[in-house]
Design a protein that fits this description.
This protein is an all-alpha fold. It has eight helices and no strands. Helix 2 packs antiparallel against helix 3 (37-60) and helix 2 (23-35) crosses helix 7 (146-176).
Length: 214
Amino acid sequence: METFKNIAVGFGISFIGSVPLGYLNLVGFHIYTHSGLMNLLCYLSGVICIEVLVIYATLKFINLLDLNPKWKSGVNLFSVFFLFGLAFYFYYKGLIGTNRGVPEILPGYPSIVTGLFLSCLNFAQIPFWTTWNLFLVNGNYISNREKYAGFYLIGTVLGAFAGMLTFILGINCIVANGFIGAKNISASLPLLLIVLTVFQIYQFFSQNRKISNN
């Protein structure tokens, strides 16, 4: 029972956390539309390799991790500059509304390296998984004993992979059925990243407001 519960909870949390709009999903969609399924799967493998390490570390050292609001605020500030830089990169490279080729964030490197690189810069996943793991362990929704931790990790890996793949293929299906043009999706990539940047700015100021009130 503990085994199934750890897998199911890990899958559910990871799937839900991976489906919403985010820069990893946006880049994944761009890779899929320009270079196909195999490159997308390699990219997702790279992303998930880093994520599973983060999940394991936060689960293993859950009682030692600092959830100081100022630290969370710093993560949000980094995300603001990173997302803005990523938006500028796609615009500057002239990938918008064209079919010039694969969007090479790391030119000359395979897609799996791109996934590893971008996932390493996704510092927001640290407070995300720390918060969730604390909640799940303290509420006895999962067991973090060594015997069952592996099954939780399996669930999170499957959930993250399924969630991101569902989002990317879902958007592609919408495009294929003519609801949205492929060029419109490509052209909107920097704009969507700017929207995410604005959201992170809001998160940053909200976090600072909470710190000031305390």
